[in-house]
Amino acid sequence: MTPETFRLAMQAAGQLQTRLNEVGSNVVVVGRMGQDLSKYGLRYTHFGIMFRPETGGRWRVAHLLNDCGTDRSDLWYEGLGNFFLDDMYRFDTVLLVPPPVLADRLLPRLQAGKVLRTLHSTQYNLVAYPFSTRYQNSNGWVLETLAAASSQETRIHSREQAQMWLKLKGYQPTELNLGPLTRLGGRMFKANVAFDDHPNELRYNDRIQTVSVDSILNFFAKGQESWQIIQLPAPQLAP
């Protein structure tokens, strides 16, 4: 990482912190642009959940990270600066602000690591199928965590229950058109890519469905009440 990139990452973190302090919520879901996925019609690549225990306190991010290209993952708590120190494609961010009642339900979950792990699978897959518990990607963990906090009909204690709730509420995953050569290359040369959790009728027709930032934005901000989306352009590198 160059000094200029590091400075830009820190400026992005500072800009984000300022905006977080203005939204009036102690829990905000934040997306970043780790790589260029424009050929798939996607802009943001990774979601984390920002939170602070009390107004005026220090912001932290809880998110699922892949262990260096392996098939394993873990949950991490980090500061805002670390969120951008990951070889970013661009430093634009998107904020998904939950309604106050949901933020109040999310905050104690985020402060209790054991509770968060009930919806975490260590088997990582970059393109994990949203309605299978065999694998999980970073955005899938965020989606299921939001689902567990959103459910008013019943208490959600497992990934199976979270996925059932999402199906009932009409969640639609992102669908990627990946041909057999692309799938074969990904499976052979990348430990963190697998397709064996996808239904055969979709996989053999080159239809790979997975959880993306865009699909989460569409589901909560457009299908649920009182969610807010805020776009935050990348800061300009100060002289």
Describe the structure.
It is a single chain. 37% of the residues lie in helices and 20% in strands. The chain is of the alpha+beta class and 239 residues long. The radius of gyration is 17 Å and the shape is globular.
The computed structural class is alpha+beta
Radius of gyration: 17 Å
Describe the global form. globular
Beta percentage is: 15-25%
Helix content: 25-40%
Q: If you average the pLDDT, what whole number results?
A: 89
Contiguous uncertain segments of 5+ residues: 183-189
Distance between the termini: 18 Å
Number of helices: 9
The count of DSSP E runs of length 2 or more, i.e. the number of strands, is 8
- Structural domain count: 1
Query: What is the spatial order of strands in the main beta sheet?
Result: 4-3-2-1-5-8
Biggest beta-sheet profile: 6 strands, antiparallel
Order of helices and strands: HEEEEHEHHHHEHHEHE
Structural key phrases:
single chain; 239 residues; alpha+beta; six-stranded antiparallel sheet; two-stranded antiparallel sheet; 8 strands
Brief description of this entry?
It contains nine helices and eight strands. It has helices spanning 3-22, 80-83, 100-111, 113-117, 138-150, 159-168, 180-189, 200-203, 213-223, and strands spanning 27-33, 46-51, 60-66, 73-78, 90-97, 174-177, 207-210, 228-232.
